[in-house]
Amino acid sequence: MKENNPIVYSTEKGRICPECGFPEKECHCRTKKISKIISDDGTIRIRKEKKGRNGKEVTIIQGISLSEQAVQSIVSDIKKKLGTGGTVKDDIIEIQGDRVKFIAEYFIKLGYKVQINGG
């Protein structure tokens, strides 16, 4: 019966991946999927997202292969320059608002290859 209805939440561990059974933050499936989708090719992918956010736009940045501290520094700098909020979740940067052009120019100036995806 457990096989047909996998546990998806535990009060002790939070959300559980239905595929591998590990807590969401330690999910082995997601890590493999993300690695396949976004390879470490040096390209930063930027897109705008609105779905599932109550109509509010967010700019998503993926593909930065830097240390966590360096990524936090970049996010802090972007937020200061834009005067907006943002966060880092699972190696994905989220900046409030449609800021695709500014962020693309920001990373190009830093010497990164940038790809803007529809969203």
Rounded to the nearest angstrom, the radius of gyration is 17 Å
Name of the level-1 CATH class of the largest domain: Alpha Beta
CATH architecture of the largest domain: 2-Layer Sandwich
User: Treating each run of at least 4 consecutive H or I residues as one helix, how many helices?
Assistant: 3
Q: What low-confidence regions span 5 or more consecutive residues with pLDDT below 50?
A: 34-39
Major sheet details: 5 strands, mixed
Number of self-contained structural domains: 2
Explained architecture:
It contains three helices and seven strands; from the N terminus they run E-E-H-E-E-H-E-E-H-E. It has about 120 residues and is of the alpha+beta class. The protein has two domains: about 1-35, no CATH class; about 40-115, SUI1-like domain (Translation Initiation Factor Eif1). A hairpin with a 2-residue loop joins strand 5 (about 85-90) and strand 6 (about 90-95). The longest helix has 15 residues, at about 70-80. Mean pLDDT is about 80; it is low at about 35-40.
